[in-house]
Amino acid sequence: MKTAISIPDKTFDLAEHFANSTGISRSELYTKAVLEYLENHKNKDVTKALNMIYTHEDSSLDNELKSIQIKSLPKEKW
Asked: Distance between CA 19 and CA 3 in Å, rounded?
């Protein structure tokens, strides 16, 4: 699909230089950039919801569960 977007000249120039130096097309660069951005932000709503919940709820572990969790960790050799 073709689309037209407006971006700052400096951003365009940097993208052009990167695309040319790596041998990928401008379309491929923009596609990869958008996909990477979406991947990095896919859990944004989940994080926001959890942050809202834990502003009102205690998120610390019960002491017994904490002890069990610590004991389950592998022993490190120094």
From this structure: 18
Q: Look at residue 67 and tell me if it is in a domain.
A: yes
Report the domain count for the chain: 1
Contact 38, 31 (CB under 8 A): no
Taking the whole predicted model, whether its pTM rises above 0.90 is answered as no
1 within domain boundaries: no
Contact, 30 vs 15, CB < 8 A? yes
59 domain-assigned:
yes
Domain region containing 63:
9-72
Residue 56: inside a domain, yes or no? yes
CA 45 to CA 57: how far, in whole Å?
Answer: 18
Q: How far is CA 32 from CA 8, 35, 56, in A?
A: 19, 5, 39
**Tens of pLDDT, residues 31-42:** 999 999 999 988
